[in-house]
Design brief:
By secondary structure, the protein is mainly α. Helix content is 71%, strand content 0%.
Length: 162
């Protein structure tokens, strides 16, 4: 005889599959509600999440452009000030005109560059932490292994060129 649950014909009892489907929907709904509440809480606490790297680059270019055009340089004097301001505005507009097509054509590139930068930073951090650990523990065994055993006179290391 099979050990599978047979649907019952008794009124008032739901078949087992319907109960499981209802439970799964309830679980998914509860998870979605919890996630939405957590996202709303984080938005109120930390502000809106950052956009894509392309959007952030646009914001950066706009902010730097606004800051540069709003600066009044006392070094240029009253006579050269307006001309210098015009040159700065023109340079900022040219920079925006150069950046915008690149952002429009391939916004994903900036996301990949940002991810690559994060990976490089993580690799650098790992290397620095490993070196700091060797310095603080006094474990210079790796350094002794890399030195040429025939020359103890200097701090040089043996480099294998093969």
């Amino acid at each position: 005889m099979s050990e599978e649950a047979q649907p019952s014909d008794v009124p008032g009892e739901e078949p087992l599959d319907e109960v499981r489907a209802t439970d799964a929907d309830a679980w998914a709904t509860a998870c979605a509600e919890d996630l939405a509440e957590e996202q709303a809480r984080r938005r109120t606490q930390y502000g809106p999440p950052p956009g894509s790297a392309a959007e952030e680059l646009r914001k950066l270019v706009d902010a730097v452009g606004e800051k540069l055009t709003s600066l009044n340089s006392p070094l240029l004097g009253a006579v050269a000030g307006p001309a210098a301001q015009q040159v700065v505005k023109q340079v900022v507009q040219q920079a925006k005109a150069a950046v915008e097509p690149v952002i429009e054509r391939s916004p994903d590139v900036f996301d990949h560059l940002a991810a690559a930068g994060n990976e490089l930073l993580a690799a650098y951090r790992s290397a620095v932490q490993a070196q700091e650990r060797r310095w603080t523990t006094g474990d210079d065994r790796d350094l002794r292994e890399r030195r040429d055993p025939g020359d103890e006179s200097g701090p040089g290391e043996r480099i294998d060129l093969d």
